[in-house]
Design a protein that fits this description.
By secondary structure, this protein is of the alpha+beta class. The protein is built from 13 helices and eleven strands. It has helices spanning about 25-35, 55-60, 65-85, 135-150, 200-205, 255-260, 265-295, 305-325, 330-340, 340-370, 375-390, 395-400, 405-420; strands spanning about 1-10, 15-20, 90-100, 105-115, 125, 150-155, 165-175, 180-190, 215-220, 235-245, 425. The strands form three sheets. Strands 6, 7, 8, 9 and 10 form a five-stranded antiparallel β-sheet that branches. Strands 1-2-4-3 form a four-stranded antiparallel β-sheet. It has a two-stranded parallel sheet with strand order 5-11. The longest helix has about 35 residues, at about 265-295. The mean pLDDT is about 95.
């Protein structure tokens, strides 16, 4: 392969490359194409799949294997030419082949490249940082959450249902006197006050006691997901079997011993204080980074090829598919269950993809402008971190994450750290 010519086009971020594939490379590819196709070719006088290459070429023409050979060779030739031209391609918009012969062939490709932004204003970004003060109120809220988790459900016999209770009910719904599909259930656990049912349904159960049978009137919302019920008035026959409420433990030293390794309430509060402090610090750091990246995104004022956004959406979709597969599902099954097609799912990623691309380009620009370097030690340290995270060997990580790609990621993270270090809090 050799790069013949590189031409900048009028459209922003587009080039045309003219590339030559040499005789030896093309000959190897035509031989490979012959070996792949020969088993399906019948030539009189030869057993099927046994005809020599030159006989097939004599019967069907010298170029019988050229198309497959071109398909085999041009992707690598284009990739090598792009590297030689010192371009970072994000898409191939057009490709045309000419001058095909035993001597090889040449082709032209119009490619879109990633822009190299020039940015300023990334030092001294002002960010309001969240408070990390641990108040008694926050500690008590954490303590109450632990108490709530350790509560137990008890049956209520001597009073009517209240908001916050969990009721066990049978129900059957009717519209215009007719039962409708999906409107019936038995021994259903419904927590009152959560608003999980049709408006008015839970409220109508409040005040009733165990063993009561009664009818309630409700109206389905206009935007209800079942069109045959949207906006309709309905009646539900209810039988209330049981009322349950959560009984919370007393907060004392015995409670502390049950839920922790501490012996006294004061000791446990100190532990909770440290936990809350860690959570607040983590939240503040994440919020700080989120605000910084929002500011960095606004620095991407130059034109960015749409293909970069499309590529990022596809990457995000692949990430989603991998997460689904780790949970025993795949994208096709997910789409079947949700009724969404691939285009609809991609649309949900578009805004986030644009943000990712802009921030990455800005950070790459900062790394260039600040002449940020990545050492071999940096790369090895990152490989070790990834190996620890994946619980695997460093050598295995190196097989699926190229050194060059990892180096670029480290460079971007160093640029982000530079932005953090130079940011101003208010």
């Amino acid at each position: 392969m050799s790069l013949i010519n590189k031409t900048k086009l009028e459209d922003a971020n587009k080039y045309e490359l003219e590339v030559k594939v040499d005789k030896e490379t093309f000959a190897d590819a035509t031989t490979k194409a012959y070996k792949k196709q020969v088993k399906n070719i019948n030539i009189p006088g030869f057993r099927k799949g046994k005809a020599p290459k030159h006989i097939i070429e004599r019967m069907y023409g010298k170029g019988v294997f050229y198309d497959d050979a071109i398909e085999e060779t041009y992707p690598k030739a284009l990739a090598d030419a792009t590297v030689e031209a010192e371009l970072k391609a994000v898409s191939v918009d057009d490709l045309s082949v000419d001058e095909v012969s035993e001597e090889g062939y040449s082709f032209k490709a119009k490619i879109t490249v990633a822009p190299e932004l020039t940015v300023d204003g990334y030092k001294g970004i002002e960010v309001e940082k969240l408070s990390t003060e641990v108040t008694d109120e926050l500690v008590n809220e954490e303590l109450e959450a632990v108490r709530e988790r350790n509560g137990r459900m008890v049956t209520v016999e001597d009073r009517a249902a209240e908001n916050g209770d969990t009721t066990v009910i049978d129900f059957e719904g009717f519209v215009d006197g007719e039962a409708f599909e999906g409107g019936k259930s038995e021994n259903y656990n419904l927590r009152l006050g959560d608003g999980n049912f049709i408006p008015g349904f839970e409220e109508a159960i409040v005040g009733h006691k165990t063993g009561e049978e009664f009818t309630i009137d409700v109206t389905f919302p206009e935007d209800y997901n079942a069109e045959n019920l949207a906006g309709k008035e309905a009646q539900f026959k209810i039988k209330l079997h049981e009322i349950k409420t959560k009984e919370l433990p007393e907060v004392d030293d015995e409670f502390v011993k049950d839920v922790s390794e501490k012996d006294t309430l004061d000791e446990y509060k100190e532990e909770l204080k440290e936990k809350v402090a860690k959570r607040l610090e983590d939240q503040a750091e994440k919020d700080f980074d989120d605000k910084l990246t929002e500011a960095l995104e606004k620095l991407a004022v130059e034109e960015i090829p749409e293909a970069m956004y499309d590529n990022e959406v596809r990457d995000m979709l692949n990430e989603f598919d991998m997460r689904l597969r780790s949970q025993g599902m795949d994208l096709a099954t997910y789409m079947k269950y949700t009724g969404m097609d691939q285009g609809a799912i991609e649309a949900t990623y578009k805004t986030q993809a644009e943000k990712r691309v802009k921030i990455r380009l800005v950070l790459e620009a900062i790394a260039r402008q600040e002449k940020i370097e990545v050492t071999d030690e940096d790369v090895e340290n990152e490989y070790n971190k990834l190996a620890d995270a994946y619980k695997t060997k460093v050598e295995e990580v190196k097989t699926y994450i190229a050194k060059e790609a990892l180096s670029e990621d480290i460079k971007v993270e160093k640029a982000m750290q530079l932005v953090r270090d130079n940011a101003k809090t208010k």
